[in-house]
Design a protein that fits this description.
Layout lengths: L5 H30 L7 H37 L14 H6 L7 H15 L1
Length: 122
Amino acid sequence: MKSISESTITVCKEQLLRIKANLLNRMRENHSDYHSHDRGGDEADLAANVLAEGTFLTVQERLRAQLLEVEVALAKIERGIYGICEETEEPIETERLLAIPWTRLSVEGAEIHEDLSKRYAK
């Protein structure tokens, strides 16, 4: 079984840490932007506030989900199990890890996962 090189793991860890910092900054900025707006006004302002709140919550949830994936990948690096496909238990392709360092699946594992999702979605 081919394993992931230490240099690939190091590069991926650096990428993940940069992505994590970026996500945390974006979450802070989104929070700050949302809370800096005036909440008073007439019915139109209240309706706009409801829409703004929905957008804020959607963006925060998306960022939180991305942050969770990054945190899982960093934890796997620390535990020494980074780069192993959760579906096939084989090493994930180096090119895939470099492109998507938080990925949990190899190309083959992603195909299997997608096929199963389609099969049981019906």
